[in-house]
TrEMBL record:
It holds the Pfam family EF-hand_7. The lineage of its organism: Eukaryota, Viridiplantae, Streptophyta, Embryophyta, Tracheophyta. Keywords: Calcium, Metal-binding, Repeat. It comes from the Eukaryota. Residues 20-55, 56-91 form the EF-hand domain. One of its GO terms (molecular function) is calcium ion binding. Signal peptide: none annotated. This is Calcium-binding protein CML10. The keyword Transferase does not apply.
Amino acid sequence: MVREIHFPPKIVEKNVQIPWTKEQVMEVFKSFDKDEDGRLSKEELKASFKKLGSLWSSFRAWRALGHADANKDGFISMQEIGELISYALKRGYKM
Ligand SMILES: [Ca+2]
Ligand SMILES: [Ca+2]
């Protein structure tokens, strides 16, 4: 199944930061789950950060898997990503 992500045109054109909802961010990460196992491997995570990194510089701070991988199994589950986003939003990161 191919999921399509529609980026807000303003971001694509001007690379300006506008607020994203948690749901939108989750959709972006889900779109990088290429093997559809419901979690992101290091490679999948890297690919998503490569895509998102230019938009959200604050995400770079999370690159370390140790921070995102709460149960240390080497994969980032959608639940872990959800918690990570909640944490970031609480800390006032702008997405
Ligand atoms: Ca996967
Ligand atoms: Ca994990």
